[in-house]
């Protein structure tokens, strides 16, 4: 399975660590890998600052999640499952997006994945859309960058669920199990990574997904 996301998939820390990144076994995809066991290969594709579908005029065009999605999917195929957790960076004031527009960006990524025969035997991989948790009300030093993000972030889950239903893919609201750290207002702390990884593992198990056997397996 492929976990495609931003800094909260990359494992950006909320505290000053030497490389500003949590270790493999602390990040939620690493927790997910441990929870699911050897049956699944969990691939981490997180990038700090990644948006759904927008070039970043300050951080660079490489932050556009849509631009990199296709080569990423095709380089890792065959895939059984793609997990999408993006949207927090779209809340930055410089993008001036509504929650509905951010959700439409997720919808564009879903459509792109459906257009690629990246599953076994030319099938489309299953997809799970994860709505990121809302920002904290106090965004500390980031309050100017994320101006008005607090209210918008609290509307994302409903918009994401609507888009997921429209595209007939699975949905999970991360806010059911985690909250953004008070340290900076929008990243996950160690406890949140653990809780999210465990919760997504339960989602995978509850839905009944099993990895498909590849030829020669």
TrEMBL record:
Keywords of the record: Hydrolase
CDD domains, per the entry: SGNH_arylesterase_like
Domain of life, source organism: Bacteria
Domain SGNH hydrolase-type esterase: 3-193
GO molecular function, one term: hydrolase activity, acting on ester bonds
Pfam family, one: Lipase_GDSL_2
InterPro entries found in the cross-reference section: SGNH_hydro, SGNH_hydro_sf
Name of this chain's protein: Hydrolase
Native source species: Roseobacter cerasinus
């Amino acid at each position: 399975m492929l976990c495609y996301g931003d800094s909260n998939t990359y494992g950006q820390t909320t505290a000053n660590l030497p490389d500003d990144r949590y270790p493999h076994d602390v990040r939620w995809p690493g927790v997910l890998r441990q929870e699911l066991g050897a049956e699944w290969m969990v691939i981490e594709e997180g990038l700090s600052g990644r948006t759904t579908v927008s070039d970043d005029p300050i951080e660079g065009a490489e932050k556009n999640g849509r631009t990199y999605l296709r080569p990423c999917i095709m380089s890792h195929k065959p895939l059984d499952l793609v997990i999408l957790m993006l949207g927090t960076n779209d809340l930055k004031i410089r993008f001036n997006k509504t929650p509905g527009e951010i959700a439409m960006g997720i919808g564009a990524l879903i459509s792109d994945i459906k257009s690629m025969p990246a599953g076994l035997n030319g099938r489309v991989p299953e997809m799970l859309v994860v709505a990121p948790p809302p920002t904290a009300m106090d965004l500390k030093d980031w309050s100017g960058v994320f101006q008005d993000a607090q209210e918008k972030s609290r509307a994302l889950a409903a918009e994401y669920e609507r888009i997921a239903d429209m595209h007939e893919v699975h949905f999970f609201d991360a806010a059911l199990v985690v909250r953004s750290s008070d340290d900076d207002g929008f990243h996950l702390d160690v406890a949140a990574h653990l809780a999210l990884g465990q919760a997504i593992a339960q989602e995978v198990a509850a839905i009944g997904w099993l990895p498909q056997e590849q030829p020669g397996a």
